[in-house]
Each structure stands twice: as structure tokens, then as C-alpha cells.
Design a protein that fits this description.
Blueprint: H1 9-16, H2 21-30, E1 35-38, H3 45-58, E2 65-69, H4 74-82, E3 86-89, H5 95-100, E4 106-109, H6 121-138, E5 143-146
Parallel strand pairs: 1-2, 1-4, 2-3, 4-5
């Protein structure tokens, strides 16, 4: 399917969740194992899950997909559950909540304090340094991929 073939929302969904051959091959090499997506209810989570599910279908693999997030928009959780995803609602900066999450051999880390981070360097440091450390501890036996759409830049002036 080409971008110019998109005529409606369903066509857009099909276009955005059609995996490349490279992705299909990469996920085939992973083999079986559940996947935890941390912060996956945001702007790209649903499409990423669609890509993963379609890649697994192409490989005839049945993989459990889980998402842990604040789900600030309740419809996001409903949409993901409609895709067969197990959802865990909570604050991932809360170390106790993080420790209650199930283990998974594969983790996708999609969290970060990006937009507006220059106005709150303390929260930026917590979300972009401390929380990843806790995630690394929790999932120390997992393969972790960090995925971000933007890298914030802090200057000494922002920290004053």
C-alpha cells in the first residue's frame, strides 16, 4: 500500500501498521516472548502495537503485549484492550508501581519528559534519568529498546 492509496481512517490504520520486511525478519529472530511497552498509551503506542501484532502474524507467532502507562485518556486504554493488549495503569515514576509490573523478556521504553521540559528541570531529570535507572533495575534480565520521538536539550540556563 502506498500513502496515496489512503482513502479513509481504516486505510490510514492499515498503512501505519503494515510492517516492513525488515521488521518482520527482526521480530522473527527474537522468537517467542511477551513484550512490555512502558509509556505506550501516547501518540505512537497504538500504531507501534499494530506493527508488532502484524509482524507477529506474518511470522505465525503469538506474543503477549502489555502496556504500562498513566492512561490519562481512558479511551486509549479501551482502544489498546480492544487490540488484545494487557494494560497496567499507574505512574511509572512510582518505584512501587514499577516493581508490581510483570516481567517480560522484551521491553520497549517510550517514556520521557519531552515537551515543556526546559521549564521544569527537576521533573525532566526524574523522568529522563531516575526512572530509566529504575526500569533498568526492574528489567535487568530483559532486552530493552528505548524509543523517543524527541530528545530534549537542557542548558545550564534551564537549570538555574
Amino acid at each position: 500500500m502506498k500513502f496515496t492509496d489512503i482513502k479513509n481512517i481504516e486505510g490510514l490504520w492499515q498503512f501505519m501498521t503494515a510492517p516492513s520486511e525488515g521488521l518482520v525478519q527482526s521480530l522473527a529472530k527474537l522468537g517467542l516472548g511477551d513484550m512490555m511497552i512502558l509509556g505506550g498509551s501516547g501518540k505512537m503506542g497504538k500504531e507501534l502495537i499494530g506493527l508488532l501484532q502484524n509482524s507477529d502474524k506474518a511470522n505465525d507467532i503469538s506474543r503477549g503485549i502489555m502496556v504500562a502507562s498513566t492512561f490519562s485518556n481512558a479511551s486509549d486504554q479501551q482502544d489498546l484492550e480492544g487490540l488484545g493488549v494487557s494494560c497496567y495503569k499507574g505512574d511509572l515514576s512510582d518505584e512501587h508501581f514499577l516493581t508490581t509490573l510483570p516481567d517480560a523478556p522484551y521491553v520497549v521504553y517510550m517514556m520521557g519528559f519531552k515537551f515543556g521540559s526546559s521549564g521544569d528541570w527537576r521533573r525532566s531529570f526524574q523522568m529522563n534519568s531516575v526512572v530509566p535507572y529504575f526500569v533498568g533495575q526492574k528489567y535487568s534480565n530483559s532486552s530493552i529498546v528505548v524509543f523517543s520521538s524527541e530528545t530534549p536539550t537542557l542548558t545550564p540556563r534551564d537549570m538555574a
